[in-house]
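Sorry to interrupt, but I need a hand with the structure work. Please put the record directly below this note.
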Amino acid sequence: MTSDDGLVRAVEAVLFAADAPLSLAELRRHVGGDAAIEDALATLRAHFAGRGVELVERGGRWHFQTAADLAHLLRYDRAESRRLSRAATETLAIIAYHEPVSRAEIEAIRGVQVAKGTLDVLMEAGWVRPAGRREVPGRPLTYATTPAFLTHFGLISRRDLPGIEDLRAAGLLDPAEQSENDVAMSGDGD
């Protein structure tokens, strides 16, 4: 066995045992700071392509997941998840498209106040996190999405969020709301 094989095995073991997706820096801490982690990940990704599990990268973090075409086999093990309220869904969308965004900015876009519980639900789900304070009077707290948000929705980065034309094509916008949404979704969108 070559040292490259040992590195691939080590990265595979660390990812398999991890309880959350790992960044390159976290992988380096486990297997050695100067290791060729990217090469090992490429080898593992190729090895697991077309198998029952696959190696995926979401938001700069790596993990193994069940192959998409086999996910139906595991559905019975999943807990029934609660649906987000319309307010929580709208708030999550605003944060995703405009992050970092303050509560006042969310309220200005939605046109109604955001209940504290709405942000709490999103933070408990692990999809939203506090992102610091704005350097303006009152120093309001801002919010941003998390790597768990990307993972849950199968996104590699926020750039993969659907655009306004994608939403229209999917029939998710009412004609009366389209002009409002054109303005709301034209945020800075990293």
Q: What stands out?
A: The chain has a mean pLDDT of 82. Residues 66 and 73 are 10 Å apart (CA to CA). The chain has two domains: 3-77, 86-184. Strands lie at 22-23, 53-58, 61-66, 101-102, 128-133, 141-145.
